[in-house]
Predict the structure.
Amino acid sequence: KAGVTQTPRYLIKTRGQQVTLSCSPISGHRSVSWYQQTPGQGLQFLFEYFSETQRNKGNFPGRFSGRQFSNSRSEMNVSTLELGDSALYLCASSSQGVAFGYTFGSGTRLTVV
Amino acid sequence: KNEVEQSPQNLTAQEGEFITINCSYSVGISALHWLQQHPGGGIVSLFMLSSGKKKHGRLIATINIQEKHSSLHITASHPRDSAVYICAGSPMNRDDKIIFGKGTRLHILP
């Protein structure tokens, strides 16, 4: 059974650009959640999608957005990139939601220069 | 103050030692998760527990709901156990967000 797939693994972008990250959940999982991890703040929740609807959102500015498609694949978009957006972005999939257990992808490491 | 606090932040031990990592939380949670993150970033979910104790190989996780405290134990530690261990609390309300501790960096010396 394939795990959670995140693409790309590494990305370098320039300040002011925008970026789109992709997450393909485990087959049959309808919940996809996104997290940002930085050395200073640790892991922080960005948002969760369940059956194409955003179910919850963390405390991040509106530059961070996401969506989920009918096949449960999810994308996360960050517009007007700032140096502080450099982080490891992780997604996790679950059959019912984060309270019921989840599997993480390997992450996308974004560097903003 | 973080709603989920872990201790210690860093831990170095010799191979074979018994390891304990602690997690205290100040909010109501439906479940407590222990995660393992190796260098390179990949995160593995080790345990999800809402009461009592769970064991998987050399890893044991316990939770005390009344004291809002959980521990992760590693018996007969090995250098391959070197990783960051993160505890996280799932919310009581499905629409609330999951809360993470800052992690404990464990280094097991051969």
User: Anything to note?
Assistant: Chain A is about 0% helix and 55% strand.
